[in-house]
DNA sequence: CGGCATCCGGACCGATACTG
DNA sequence: CAGTATCGGTCCGGATGCCG
């Protein structure tokens, strides 16, 4: 569509906006954090993250697989084993996502304090 | 103060998880993009982003103000004028958010292609 | 101009139970 | 172990209309 080669999130019609939103959903950053050191199994991701139900985790993983960010490998064994790993594309997202995560951890205190101050002023 | 860095997104109870989620909501990255070059008025942000209703934009801006990421300055004039700007804390988030935005713009094509391929396989 | 009030639909999320 | 099925709730986000 665009004669230009680039996507622009400031354009309401640009697909990059949809992509950007996906990256910001509730569990995506946490899944990436779990997978950043290599292949992990479903149960491992689940316990890494904690407090996520199987259904929602499956949904998240399926979406990421569909978007080409992770791979899903099934081993036909008993008991079944399924392993997840970042694709090359997914790995390239690790840096950006990590930057946001680190900011959140580093500044959560300040945000919370600001929130309290704001609420007290009401 | 905690001797350790206290906050860890992989801990379900950690407040940083809430903060991380806020950063990923639908309009936050776009507001930051609009404010990155300096102070802007409500209408300017609105037209920068496009396709966002006043109500939702107001909600987003209030939340960001409450979290200490932007300032809101009202000028008692007729017609009224309200200006928004990033705080120091907000500015420190500009880099991380920009990294994700750039990734989205650079790789949206690949994500879309992967999505199509995945859907065709069904 | 920059909101706020109201209503509303649907996406997202979760608890629980069950299965190959 | 790694999901699927079902049901239900919340809440985000949008449309519309009014106000100082």
UniProtKB/TrEMBL annotation, chains A, B:
Ranges where the HTH hxlR-type domain occurs: 14-112
Pfam families, sorted: HxlR (PF01638)
Superkingdom as given in the UniProt entry: Bacteria
GO molecular function: DNA binding
Cross-referenced InterPro entries: HTH_HxlR, WH-like_DNA-bd_sf, WH_DNA-bd_sf
Signal sequence range: none
Full protein name: Transcriptional regulator
Native species: Galactobacter valiniphilus
